[in-house]
Amino acid sequence: MLLSKFDGLELPASADFHVHLRDGPLMKAVVRTVRRGGVNTVYVMPNLVPPLTSASDAMAYKQRLQQEDSSINYLMTLYLHEKITPAVVKGAKAQGIVGIKSYPAGVTTNSSSGVLDYEVFYPVFRAMEQCGMVLNLHGECPSDHGKNITILNAESSFLPTLKSLHAQFPKLKIVLEHCTTREAVEAVNECGPNVVGTITAHHLYLVVDDWADDPFCYCKPVAKWPSDREALILAAVSGTGKFFFGSDSAPHDITAKKGGSGKTAAGVFTQPYATQLVLGALEQAIERKVITQEEVTEEILTGFLGGYGRNFYGISDSSNEKIVLRKGGEVIQESVTGMGVEVVPFRRGQSTWSVEWK
To answer: What's the DSSP call for residue 36?
Structure first.
């Protein structure tokens, strides 16, 4: 059996460096699923409505999250916006805000207040560089048919911007979030040690055919070609520390995913099975002969599922919590429900690995 060597393996609790936990009833429904995915540390995205553009707003949100589950370490971020100034950066850093997330205007959920011109924010980036705050990039250009840019090449079209920002601010820590292409992997590798990338679980499974007819596989950035998926797999097991796990788990109520009253919401919900799905994706990659079982080691899993990210962000897990991997007969549930909301998980109804807390 593939990866059966990991059945019963004890690992440090996973850290998920890109999560969407929403607010209100949706938040209450999904926060309680974080630990089910073997995760005790989450890097929380700020694209609420309205977006989190002040440290006080972010810390108030953190309190709401802690009321749902106080055992999780919530790492908070701000939304890059015209309200963000160098003074705001320094004040936010002092209050424990870890990073600032950049969304190009209009490319994904709740990004209408996003960035149109990065040069305007150079003073902000300089302040971030000086105080050690991380810049998290949603690495896509808005679609522009005059420039032949669509959702299929939006990420590759953004990569010159990544390289330019790194050249302008070489000491600024930058994360290219949710990499989806071979070109993105190559760009991150070409940059210095202060530039890294996150990889989701679902992009280790999906190609364009999967989301073209299934709204529950549709996200931004979209999954691309098989060759891109294989590049992500190889990056995930490379052991360089340049790539680590960020699920980009993005819950939407089922009505927003099924459509019928507007565009389908972009987002794949993986939170309850975050760690488990990574194991399944690696097994499938072994079946496709992209990698071998020998390349997937305990050291690689420990690094990708939290160690590399914790090192990059300079955080430790004082809880020393452990999880145990189980290769059994668990099946991904059909939906997660809450007060007036229903969210459909990725790969619903399919078998998966299990996680136990030690």
So the answer is: G
Residues 6 or more apart whose Cβ sits within 8 Å of residue 262: none
What is the Cα–Cα distance from 249 to 343, expressed in whole angstroms?
A: 11
Question: Tell me: the pLDDT tens digits for 16-25?
Answer: 999 999 999 9
pLDDT tens track for 292-335: 999 999 999 999 999 999 999 999 999 999 999 999 889 999 99
Question: Strand 243-245 relative to strand 73-75: parallel, antiparallel, unpaired?
Answer: unpaired
Question: SS3 breakdown of the chain: % helix, strand, coil, rounded to 5?
Answer: 40, 20, 40
Can you state the angle between helices 24-31 and 55-68, rounded to 10 degrees?
Answer: 50
Is residue 31 helix, strand or coil? helix
Q: How far apart are CA 248 and CA 21, in angstroms?
A: 10
Q: How far apart are CA 192 and CA 179, in angstroms?
A: 17
The DSSP bridge partners found for residue 356 are: 324
* Length of the chain in terms of residues written: 358
Secondary structure element (H or E) that encloses residue 227, with its range: helix 226-236
First to last CA, the chain: 24
CA distances to 24, 28, 301, 349 from 327, rounded to whole Å, are 35, 29, 15, 16
In angstroms, rounded to a whole number, what is the distance separating the alpha carbons of residues 120 and 25? 36
Average the pLDDT over each of 101-110, 279-288, 323-332 and give the range with the smallest value. 101-110
24 near 339, Cβ under 8 Å?
A: no
Residue 188 is encoded by which pair of tokens? 């991150």
Bridge partners of residue 10, in order along the sequence: 324
Q: Which two tokens stand for residue 82?
A: 């015209």
Task: Report helix, strand or coil for 12.
Answer: strand
116 or 39: which carries more pLDDT confidence? 39
Short-list 220, 171, 164, 208, CA closest to 187? 164
Between helix 182-190 and helix 226-236 the angle, nearest 10°, is 40
pLDDT digits (tens, 9 = 90+) for 174-201: 999 999 999 999 999 999 999 999 999 9
109 pLDDT band (50/70/90 cuts)?
low
For residue 221, cis peptide bond before it (omega within 30 degrees of 0): yes
